[in-house]
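Data deposition worksheet. Section B asks for the primary sequence of the deposited chain exactly as it was used as input, without tags or linkers unless they were present during the calculation. Section C holds the resulting structure in token form. Section D is free text for depositor observations; keep each observation to a single sentence. Incomplete worksheets are returned to the depositor.
Section A, Depositor: J.P.
Section B:
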Amino acid sequence: MNTDNPRGRSREQLSPARVALADPFADPEAVRTALGDALHGAGVRLEQVDAIPHGPGIVGLLVGPEVPMTAEDLALLPDLRVIAVTSTGYDHVPVEAARAAGVWVTSSAGYCTQEVAEHTLALGVGLLRGTVDLDRDVRSGIWDVERVRPRRIAGTRWGLVGFGRIARAVAEHAAALSMPVSAWDPMVAPEHFEKAGVRRVENLIDLLAGTDLVSLHIPLTSETADLIGAAELAAMPTGSFLVNVSRGEILDHAALAAALDSGQLKGVALDTLPVEPPAADDPALSLTSTVLNPHAAWYSDEARQRAYAWAGAAVGAVLSGGRPDGVVVVEPPHSRQT
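Section C:
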């Protein structure tokens, strides 16, 4: 073993060895249980932190999307061996820097697939039936079903931007309500669409133009930031609906406001925003015909425990010399030298 390499040190050389849990929603007991022998047998200590810690001795880091990590943070963690993301998305961690440094990165993708799919369905059906607007009307003294004009669910065309695990679960739920489903995802092979009974559309604009309700299910990358802008929203049928349960930055919010003001979109449901939580003067709070949720689509008691159990298990696998599940970055054969 190369002891000049900080990430190649044995656990006995790390004094004291620690695993840091940086996530405000964390379930420490789920993590502690998942770490198992890697925590207790090797004398590794678990500590919950409010921000990315720095310094020697930290061999594992579990980090949630509310605690962004930078390449500079990584440089100040010389003993770090694994970053376990407690969410599906991992755009809040420095993936390329971790790859260069020889640090594993894992995702908890799949821990909340059904929860997000169900929440997407609830938001979409709620928009179509006008349940939130009707509630607001009644509470303000308006008793008029014609103002909202709820729409029939069966026959409404649902379009999916992205066709990963969550989108496929949404497609299954929507089909059960007799909604024709189409999807666009250039990264997914045609046979996956066929297997799911979903019409594959090769062009994003064509998908948007041919659906009444669109939901977003793609990760945030440099290519997908502001993917849905003025031209894309203009392609949607007048009076259509949009649901975003992915990342706020995928949607151009200035273009969204214009589409709502013009009536191009009749309603929008946003579970994610570019800045979370929004400031009191955030323009998103003033959008008309909009349902806002606090990034809640992932949540259930079961999913919460599952996310931290999976992340903890990934850290435990690495510290025990094994290969973790949910790998985003594979540790290369060499690590950063001191």
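Section D:
Residues 1-6, 8-14, 334-338 have pLDDT under 50 and may be disordered.
DSSP finds 13 helices and 13 strands in the chain.
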